[in-house]
Amino acid sequence: MGAFPQTIYFTGANAPVGEEPDLRGLKVEGDLPAEVRGSFYRAIPDPAFPPRFENDHTLSGDGMVSRLSFNGDGTADFIQKYVETARYKAEKAAGKALFGKYRNPFTDDPEVQGVDRTVANTTPVWHAGRMLMAKEDGRPYRVDPRTLATIGSYDFGGALKSETMTAHVRIDAGTGELFFYGYEADGQASTKVAYCIVGPDGELKREQWFDAPYCAMMHDFTISENYALFPIYPTTADLDRLKAGGEHWHHQPELDSWLGVMPRYGDVSEIKWFKGPKGCHSYHMMNAWEDADGMLHFDACLNNTNAFAFIREPSGIHMGPQDIKGALTRWTVDPRADGGDVVETVIGPPGDFPVIPAKLQGRPYKTGWMLSMNPELQGPPLFAGPVGVSFNLLLRLDGMDTPAPQVTGALALPPMAGFNEPVHVPAADPAKDGWLVFLVDQQVGDNQFVHEAWVVDAGNIGAGAVAKVHIPTRLRPQVHGWWVPQAQLDALEGSAA
Where does Fe cation bind (predicted)? Predict the structure, then answer.
């Protein structure tokens, strides 16, 4: 194609930018909390070239990583660079797109057959002093956390055998271990899943493979103190469809969902499968935890179908956004049982991008935050992101360790404005809730947008931002982000990144 498609995925707030800004000494308005000293990293899909197919979409975009640094002198710096993947470098050399449909190598230009086609555009993962840009269709790329220069594809020093690694890792704050998995671990449409544990030193300690009930989009998973939990939802891949030039994903509402549960330090032969409802789908989980009776609770932002139109419509599912029903939903199982059905309870409103304090990962927790849509918005929302509409309501929920959590706080945006996913920054005082840091995008005119980083008191989100940074350049919506404290970045000085 000679130009970007004029669809929702490439116009308005989703219009490709292709710039690598380097902005220093930005003014911080308001009172920046002392704890907010460090860097906020974001993963942004931004295609360098128009796609080969008209029906391409946001998530195919080349990965960019940005770093917003809050400095000791009260200013902020913002830099953003492409992740120089093998795919990006091949297309840059050719001056055009060479890779075809989303996650379908059978539609690529013959000259790039066999070239690593991941775009590394979903999550910046920080662990053991390394920054990895991850996307679930391949191995991550390592970048320098200070300069954002690409170091290269990363396989834990040759130890990782899986061809893929999730963009949604889980880190146990108590042990310092990183838990992850890779689905389609040995190739397109495979049922093989690799379950991996990385020590606090960054070394891959264990990799085990098992078969999922079917090849599913396994976008996220969770750990509890004693278990690893693998949700399976019926968005599926088929090798014959791929070879015929079709889409990687179709949603199959007639199929059951499943939750696989195994001891997190156990053997994959111990995995037990609990059956969930037919046709449902979740992209992101808030947490998993065990109660005093040993029951295992799995809290996810669950919908009655896949949220992405570019997956639903090729599957023959035609419905408007208003017809997608969702809620923060709890699945409860007894991990000591041999399987059975999940017990499902609605515990919160519809929405996505849930966040909790990192120290409570896999533990009982009282508070969480998530994004939602404001039903009382007096005007149009911001049309942006892979779903097509940005979330415009930030919610706080308390009582997450009870059967009936409650919404206890809210921050609403005006029309034509949207939140990007927040990250949580802990407070020095453990009795306080810490801070949420995120970017807000707002359309202020015809193809004119304002982008600001906000710092919000996590204990009083309704009060709005206590500090803001205006970022004077055009930005594309992010996917996920990560917070790295300044002390951890300072520890890199004099060492290899």
Answer: 168, 219, 284, 480
